[in-house]
Design goal:
Helix content of chain B: under 10%
Oligomer: heterodimer
Low-confidence stretches of chain B: none
Radius of gyration of chain B: 13 Å
Strand content of chain B: over 45%
Shape of chain B: globular
Number of helices of chain A: 0
Order of helices and strands of chain B: EEEEEEEEEEE
Number of strands of chain A: 11
Structural class of chain B: mainly beta
Largest sheet of chain A: 7 strands, mixed
Number of helices of chain B: 0
Chain lengths: ~110, ~110
């Protein structure tokens, strides 16, 4: 399985600050995703990428951006953090078949 | 109607019991189905894919009913370690970004 590393694992930031969550995979797969998970909503897709220089908006993309300069990394940036963006964020990689593998998550608190 | 619906539970069952969860989906064109397991404050992990003919992995059995548009997960001889939230995942045809996660069913196995 892919090794997917997210950092930081936990972060507290202030409203209005820019925050970047890193995601690095060692599997060299093209399809990568960012999800957020909140109580009552399940996993919701923020952005996704099918390869280098390809980025697409997901269901809840407002206030977030991603970039894909290489196959291994898909950093997620919160342009101006808001309290509504307090959540746990999961990076994911599509593996064999349609299987999605997740990183360990990044817990973000915006105060 | 939500694209994927699950009973949130919790299902509280004694050790050794058999428990079953259902998950309904709205898109009749859905092609791929999965069950994921998520432990508290951890990432979701693939438990098993769901095949049209049904499939079994040890104590776990997954089934698909296309006519009624639901998938099921049966756990026999429940163990304390089975306590987790079980996510239903549905992928209609047309791209991985359309993968939809249920909000999960919580299982608590009691000694």
């Amino acid at each position: 399985d892919a090794e997917i590393t997210q950092s930081p694992r936990h972060k507290i930031t202030e409203t209005g600050r820019q925050v970047t969550l890193a995601c690095h995979q060692t599997w060299n797969h093209n399809n990568m995703f960012w999800y957020r998970q909140d109580l009552g909503h399940g996993l919701r897709l923020i952005h996704y990428s099918y390869g280098v220089h390809d980025t697409n908006k997901g269901e809840v993309s407002d206030g977030y951006s991603v970039s894909r300069s290489n196959t291994e990394d898909l950093p997620l940036t919160l342009e101006s953090a808001a309290s509504s963006q307090t959540s746990v964020y999961f990076c994911a990689v599509q593996g064999s078949g349609n299987t999605i593998y997740f990183g360990e998550g990044s817990w973000l608190t915006v105060v | 109607r939500k694209e994927v619906e699950q009973d949130p539970g919790p299902f509280n069952v004694p050790e050794g019991a058999t428990v079953a969860f259902n998950c309904t989906y709205s898109n009749s064109a859905s092609q791929s189905f999965f069950w994921y397991r998520q432990d508290c404050r951890k990432e979701p992990k693939l438990l098993m894919s769901v095949y049209s003919s049904g499939n079994e992995d040890g104590r776990f059995t997954a089934q698909l009913n296309r006519a009624s548009q639901y998938i099921s997960l049966l756990i026999r001889d429940s163990k304390l370690s089975d306590s987790a939230t079980y996510l239903c995942v549905v992928n209609p045809s047309g791209g991985y970004q359309k993968v939809t996660f249920g909000t999960g069913t919580k299982l608590q196995v009691i000694p």
